Amino acid sequence: MINIEEEYLGLMAGILYGGKPKEDRTKTGTRSVFGRMIRHDMKLGFPLLTTKKIFFNHALTELLWICNGRTDITYLHDHGVTYWDSDYKRSGRRDGTLGPIYGHQWRYFGGVDQLADLIRSIKTEPTSRRLLVMAWNPVDNSNMVLPPCHYGFQIYCDATYVDLMWQQRSADVFLGLPYDIAMYGLLLELIAKGAGLKPRKLIGSLGDCHLYNNHLDQAKEQLSREMRSLPKLELNRGIRMIDDELIIPEHKDVRLIDYNPHPSIKAELSVGT
After folding, report:
1. Mean pLDDT of all residues in 244-248
2. Residue 235 scores a pLDDT above 50
3. What is the reported pTM?
4. Could you say which of 67, 149, 157, 209 is catalytic?
5. Cα–Cα distance between 184 and 50 in angstroms, integer?
6. Residue 209 catalytic?
7. CA dist 34 to 18, 26, 100, 213, Å?
8. Which of 36, 96, 144, 223 has the maximum number of C-beta atoms within 10 A of its C-beta?
9. Superfamily of domain 4-257
10. Which of the 8 DSSP states describes residue 147?
11. Which pLDDT score is estimated for 273?
């Protein structure tokens, strides 16, 4: 079975020691590789890295924010998430939203509730090859504070199991990717729970995978640490349809247990101008 933390550490080492220098919009500079896939067998545990502490509540909050179709920063602030603030300030927006980003696209893409259609189709057409949701919308991208980094996901079902593969154009491997992994792992768990199925495979398809030049020492420190056992997740309920209404779980419905990571490693967030 494949443990995504091994995959993640291998990806990071490959970038650190074999990535090519590449300029970027933040002017920080990166080491970069292109076109990588990472996988995880959910039987091994919930995919939350142990070689440094990942703040699970941040991933949980952002996923519920997206699933509820929200784009405001108030909800994020109410749950202690502030890492979108710099992009909001840089954008010059004053309406308290991040524009028509992830949540808007998942729930209101051209008037279509993609997430509700997906959950409905898993019940009615579980073998469909059209079980996917897209966040990349060329019509709206210029009105977002930041175009989607993870821009779509697809579901694969059989009579017992659910797999999820997400697509990502840009992966900040040290800071951002661990949260993307956790968020899509949680999404897989919530979809499986709501459908009465079991989560099986989590797969990430990544485009530009990079380490910022001011994260190289931190990456070396993380690579020096030994992996620990992955945590487990307990869910009271999943994402489901009731009388044609999409029901999204709340924070209280999700519980992380047996998480014993190494300490967090501080690193500066790179933001463009």
Report:
1. 95
2. yes
3. 0.97
4. 149
5. 17
6. no
7. 12, 19, 27, 17
8. 144
9. Thymidylate synthase/dCMP hydroxymethylase domain (3.30.572.10)
10. -
11. 40
